[in-house]
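Each record in this resource describes a single protein on a pair of labelled lines. An example record follows, reproduced without changes.
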Amino acid sequence: MVLFLAGTVIGRISLLAFVGGTGLVHCLASMPTAGIQLGLAMVGAGVVAAAAARRSRWIGVCAFPLCAALLGALLTMHRVDNRLADHLTEENENQVSRVVLRIDSLVRMRPDSRQFEAETISSMPSGVPSRILVSWNAPGYAGPYGDPQAREAEFPVLAPGQLWRMSLTLKRPNGLRNPHGFDYEGHLFANGVRATGSVRGTPRYLGDEPYTSLHVGAERARHHVREAMQPYLEGKRYGAVLLALAIGDQASVSADDWKIFNFTGISHLISISGSHITMIAAMGGLLTLWGWRRLRFRGHALAERIPAQVAACMAALLVAWLYCLLAGWGVPARRTFLMLAVAACAHGLRLPFNGSRLICVVAFMVVLMDPWALMATGFWLSFGAVCVLLASASWWGRAAGLDKGRGYRIRRRLWQACCLQLAITAGLMPMLAFLFHEVSLVSPLVNAYAIPVISLIVTPLALALAGLAMLPGVQWLTEAVAWVGHGALELTMWPTVRLAQWPMASVEVAATPLWLSGVALLGLALAVVPYGFPMRAAAWALMAPALLFRPERPAMGSWDLIALDVGQAGAVVILTARHAVLFDAGLRSSALSDGGSRIIVPYLKARGVRRLDGLIVSHADIDHVGGLRSVLEAFPVTQSFSSFDVRAHLAREAGLLGVPGVLPPLPMAMSPCQYGMVWEIDGVTFEFLWPLKRPPGRRASNASKERNDHSCVLRIRGARHSALLLGDISAAQERLLVERGLGLVDIVLAAHHGSRNSSDRAIVSATQPSHVIAQVGRWNRYGHPHPTVVDRWRAANAQFWRTDETGAVIIQSRPSGLQARAHRVDRPRYWQGR
């Protein structure tokens, strides 16, 4: 039915309308009521009835796409309502529940933790959703710089299908919400995860049910393959990449390697992509074709009963399906398998099928199977690459000079392959810029040698390694395959790493408005249309506005203040007409992760910031200085201010991170923050009100309280409004500020995240702000902000913002007045807090 529907233009438009209707639902802040959904269904039925009664061609042209869009939206709303109903009850939130569960995903292994998705079998008390994300941490906390290796042996072997009884502290999914940032809550909701749980006590193993479903069986197979491969990958620099190529397990690939892959534009090669699946399917089909023509049964050739081409096609589909299951059945894998299946069915039914029909049918099927596939970046990148490939297919069909010799034809094919790669790189450029705010300039060069090596050598050897590792008695052959595969990958990465270190390897692109992204996509569509279209080559110029876009900045004397949602930490961005200042650098949560790389750097790049004119680190607590190294590695800094020795801190941190002596690029100038320091940028005055100058001979203490009390306190005064950033000072320091003549302020960043030992009545009375912001993490163990503090500020007629509830808070000082908004409130989605 779908194949025949795609045979007409209206049918293809209707299939895309179904996808569009599904996508619109994911933009809603809340689901329509049952009455509204029933009304939409009646509208659709009425449109169909009117089209049937009038028998008008133009009514039919409009009716079918409209009904398809309504059908897609209604089906998605129904599935969303069912998923929302499967939630963690309020009385169970942040409480310990005793849960019997079944592991149903490949376990993510880290030296000090295990993480997996699980199906809930039973719970006490009830009210636990059917699917949860479990984190099992090793006993004790070694700190963000601790060595977790010693706790490796404390975990039992965890495998999909196992049954466990666990005591879990359950919470509804909660993620940080920042402009242009990753939506963790949406990601979990799309995967059906409706609660997160942390293990308490010692779990009890109950049994093993490895084949209760196809999904669990596939995940168990992935587990066995990983266990078999790991002994042959130990000690190999890129062993984790071979594992990712074989079974799609990317958790072990280091963050530094991912940076290199992104800078050079080869991330698609490390993920199991459509080209890998197609290649494996083709190998299976060709082997079957060769063997089927030669095999005989009871004196008759098998090809007499089933044509060899049909058998090869079925074998290719079977191999592709099995490999997709082994790879985790992600969105790109689903897309590739369905494309192969649809193409095979169309060929078997002798249906004329071109690229546009194939894309429309497969997009419809992917979204019908999983409406949340539209929320995955892999969906857009995968289909985008296919569109460029199909549009550029005419390059392969042009004559290669059959009368000019084999050498010429080879050179011609190589040139066409390079042009095709350049087209894919350029074609995906608007999408990559919109999604990741970065475009790789060395991608065509790197892909030119990486694609054949990784696709034709490394990936087949990784798969061969996976198969041989499961067989007994062939250890020598397995080790040889691992050595050759890793050697080829290592040889490929040698020039790639050096190209990634080139300063111009990639270019940051600011976040663009939707209309500019639409113009860029229109330019792409026009550029890849068939030859002969007027001004076809000039269509690439339509991408330039999106790539060169710079977000609007405040006018002279005005400023923007963005209190980022960084959890229980501090990070505030101040933007003026031509400059950018960062106050504090977020939290370091582990040796591999910090708020600088995950939150601050992506936001600044999305806002078009290329350098920091000022970097202020209020004090040396880990929740304010944790992301400093990542920020310094990402941006050149003109001037830094701090209440401690930045160089000494970075040197000490390098030793704790296991890279002694390795420092990031330091600011051009580094100064201590002291009372009385004043400077002006773009008509905005910055002034330090604290700390006082230390007495001669007195050294800074490592005690947390003294570090807090010596925090940098910054006052910002523009042409019309002012802001006060208090760091982590306590009430005693606040009273001293008031005694020194602290006046009225429009914005206050609450001291010490709203601690009850700060926000004294004196400073509340003296400043009388319109807005107060507390940067806090949800369910933080300190109880910040304290209810007394919140009530105190609100009693002074201040609007109190807490980032755990509102997300990032954006304050804009403009001639028209002070504008304040919160990202979570400004961009609501139906899955928030659910």
